[in-house]
Amino acid sequence: MPSRPLPPGPNLPRPSFLNKTRVIFLVLTISSSAVILFTIIYFLYHLWNSLSNRARTIPFDSSAPLKLQRFCYKELKNATNDFDDANIIGKGGSGTVFRGIVRDGKLFAIKRLDTLSLQTEREFQNELQILGGLRSPFLVTLLGYCVEKNKRLLVYEYMPNKSLQESLFGDGHLSMNWQRRFDVILDVAKALEFLHFGCDPPVIHGDIKPSNVLLDCDYRAKISDFGLSRMKVEGEFGLDLFSQDFGRSQELSGTLGGTTGEHTPAIGTPVESNNTEVDFALALQASSSSKNSKKCYNVRALSLNSLNYNANLASENDCKGGVNGKGKEVTCVDDWNAKFVPYDDEFCSIDHSKELNSSANLGADEVAVTMPTSVKQWGKDWWWRQDGSGELCSKDYVMEWIGSQICPSNPDWGDDKKPSPEKIELDNSTQLDKPEDVNEPQVQGLGFDALDKGFEKEEPKQKGRKNRKKTNRKMQEWWKDDHLGEVSKKDSKLKQLKTKWKKGFKMPHFDLGRRFYFCRSKKFGEPNQDDRDANGEFSFRRGWRRKNNNSIGSDMWSGDLFSRELSSTTSMRGTLCYVAPEYGGCGYLMEKADIYSLGVLILVIVSGRRPLHVLASPMRLEKANLISWCRQLAQSGNILELVDERLKDEYNKEQASLCINLALSCLQKMPELRPDIVEIVKILKGEMDLPPVPIEFSPSPPSKLYNRSRRKQKGNAD
Ligand SMILES: Nc1ncnc2c1ncn2[C@@H]1O[C@H](COP(=O)(O)OP(=O)(O)OP(=O)(O)O)[C@@H](O)[C@H]1O
C-alpha cells in the first residue's frame, strides 16, 4: 500500500523557536554591548578623572619625553662642530658637555654620554623621565634628546656661568660676592621646595652638590643632573621608618621585609639584576668600622604638628605648578626643641657581620628591632666620627679613611691603580684656595704618594728625593702604627664580604642604593678596561677613568681628597661628603637626604671650601673636614670664622650666621630633626625664626656632661 505523505503539522514549534533565539541573541548582544560600552565609559571617565587630577596636582607628566624635541645625531654633531674640543664646556662622571647652536640659532648645552652602560642608560632615562617632565625656574630646562644606536645625548638650556663648582673654586670666585652666594642658597632651597612639595609624587634629587648647581647670566641658580634622582613612593621602608609619624611604621611593617631588597625605580628605569652587586655601604662600614664608637642621640619625643602645605604654598607660589591641589596634609616638625636622650656607647656598638646575616632575614615583625639597629649603625658609622664630638679628630678620621681605601684587601686598590707620584702633578692653575692656602700645596690624589707630594713641597727643593722617600716612609710608618690593628680587621671583614659574594651569596641590603661592583667581567654595564687607568681617578660610577684635563671642575686635581665621586656606581646615589649619613645605614633616598646635602652645600658656599680639604700642614688638618670644623666652631661660639676669607669683611654677618646655623640644623644626624625644605625657605626669607642651634653644636654641649654624670651614677650604682 502506497504510503501517504504526512500533512505538515499545523503547530510545528519551529518559527517561534527561531524567534525566541533571535530575541535572546538580540538581548544578549544589546546587553553585552551595553556592558562593554559602560565599561569603556567607566574606564574613560576614570582616565579623564585621574588625568585631570594629575594636571592639577602633578606638575610633571611621565609622557613628557615625548614632548621633548628629538634631535638626530647628525644635527647635534653639526651644532657642536663635530663635537670639537673647543666647544667643551664641562665634563662630568657620565659625559662631556658641549656648547652648540641648534635649529633656531640659539645656544644650547649638549651633554653626550661618553659610554653606554646600564648605569648611564639608567641615568639617561631618569633625566628624560624626571627632569623632562618638570618645569620650574629653579631647574635647568631639558629641551631635547637624541637616541641613536648606542648614542645618547641630552640638550639643555645653556647656562652662561656654568656651575657653582667653577664659580666657587675657579677664576669665577671673584664674582661670587656675598649677595650672589646668598641668592644661590635661596634658589637651591626653592628648587628643592619645588621637588619635595611641588611635585606629586615628590622628587628627591639625590645628588645636590656644587657641580650640579648651574648659574645663569645673572648668577641665579638652577639645579641640574637628575640622573640619580628618584620619585618617592609612599609606603617605602625609609619613608615609614623616618617619617615623623614613626609610630605608624609598625603598622606598615609587613612591607618591610619585602622591600629590603628592592626599591621602586624611577619611571622608565631599566630593571637590573642584583646578583653581582655587593652592598657598598656595608662594605664601607666593614672597612671602616672602629672600636671608637661615639655617642649617639635618640629621640625621645617629637612634638609634631600637621600643617597644610597648600595654605603656605598658595601664598608664596614661587614655583610654577607648586600647588598641591589635593590639599595633602604635610607634617612638619613644629617643636624645634625636640628632646634628646644621649645613650651609651655600648648601645651604639654593633657587629656589622651580624647585620649582614640577620638583615637578610628581616621579617615583618622586626621593625621595632630594626630601628635601634639602624641607629646603632649610625653610631658605628665612620661618617659620624666627623662630628668632632669624640676623641677621633679630623686627622684620625681623614687618615683612617685613607687607610680604609688603600688597605690591600680593597679591590679598588690594585698597585696599578694607584696614581704614581710622577703622575700627580701639582697644577698651579688648580690651586684655588683661600689666600692663606695659596702657598701651601694641597694633598692631591689618594694614598701616601699624594700625601708625600704635598709634604714634599714644604721642604727645600735641594733635599730632593731622599727626603721625599724618608717622609713617605715616615708617613706610612706613622699611619701603620696607628692603624695596623684596624687594617687587619677591615681586611678580614672585606675578605668575608668578598668570599660571600664569590660563593654566589646575594648580599642582603636595605637597598641603600649604594652597591658597587667588585671587579668582575664583562657584561653590559661593567666598567671596561679603559676605565681603570693608572693615570686616572677612580670613579665608583665607572671605575678608573682617565682624567686628561686637569680642569678646574675636577675635584681630584683641585685637592679635594674624597671627591672620587661616590655618586657613581650603578645604584650608588649621592656624592661622598654630600650624601646623607643615614643613607649608609638603612637608607632609602628621602627628602631629608637632600636636606643634608643642602646643609653641606650651604657650608661650602659660605666658606668657599670643599667639604674635605686636606692641606699639607698638620696644623690645618682640623679644618680639613668642613663639617667637623664648623661643628667645632659652633661649639666654641665662633661660627663666622668659617666665612670665606676672600670675602674679607664684605658680607652680611647676620645672613652668614643664619646660613651656618641653618646648615648645622640640616646636618643633624637624625633625619627627622632636620628642618624640611618649606621651613628652610621661610627661614632664609626671614619669614620664620631659625631653630635653636642643635644641642650637640651649642657652645657647651650638655650632652657630654650628661653622659659623664650618667656614667658616674652608673658606676656608683655598680
Ligand atoms: N646646561 C649647562 N650649561 C652650561 N654648562 C653646563 C650645563 N650643564 C653642564 N654644564 C657644565 O658641564 C659640567 C659637567 O656637567 P655634568 O652634569 O655632566 O657633570 P657633573 O655634575 O659635574 O658630574 P656628575 O655627572 O658626575 O655628577 C658642569 O660642571 C658644568 O660646568
Attribute tags:
Phosphorylase Kinase, domain 1, Transferase(Phosphotransferase), domain 1, 718 residues, globular, alpha+beta, binds adenosine-5'-triphosphate, single chain, two-stranded antiparallel sheet
The parts where pLDDT drops under 50 for at least 5 residues are: 55-66, 236-395, 400-464, 482-487, 500-572, 701-711
The largest sheet has its strands arranged as 1-5-6-4-3-2
Shape verdict: globular
Q: Percent range for helical residues?
A: 40-55%
Strand elements, count: 18
Strand-residue proportion: 5-15%
User: Major beta sheet, specifics?
Assistant: 6 strands, mixed
CATH architecture of the domain at 163-236 and 575-696: Orthogonal Bundle
Tally of alpha and pi helices: 24
**Content-based structural category:** alpha+beta
What do we call the CATH topology of the domain at 163-236 and 575-696? Transferase(Phosphotransferase), domain 1
What is the CATH superfamily label of the domain at 163-236 and 575-696? Transferase(Phosphotransferase) domain 1
Description:
The chain is an alpha+beta fold. Among the domains are: 64-158, Phosphorylase Kinase, domain 1 (2-Layer Sandwich); 163-236 and 575-696, Orthogonal Bundle (Transferase(Phosphotransferase), domain 1). It is built from 24 helices and 18 strands. Strands 1-5-6-4-3-2 form a 6-stranded mixed β-sheet, sandwiched between helices. The chain has a two-stranded antiparallel sheet with strand order 7-10. A hairpin with a 3-residue loop joins strand 3 and strand 4 (106-113). Helix 20 packs antiparallel against helix 22 (653-666). The chain is globular, with a radius of gyration of 30 Å. 47% of the residues are buried. The model is unreliable at 55-66, 236-395, 400-464, 482-487, 500-572 and 701-711 (pLDDT under 50). Adenosine-5'-triphosphate (ATP) binds next to strand 2, strand 3, strand 4 and helix 5.
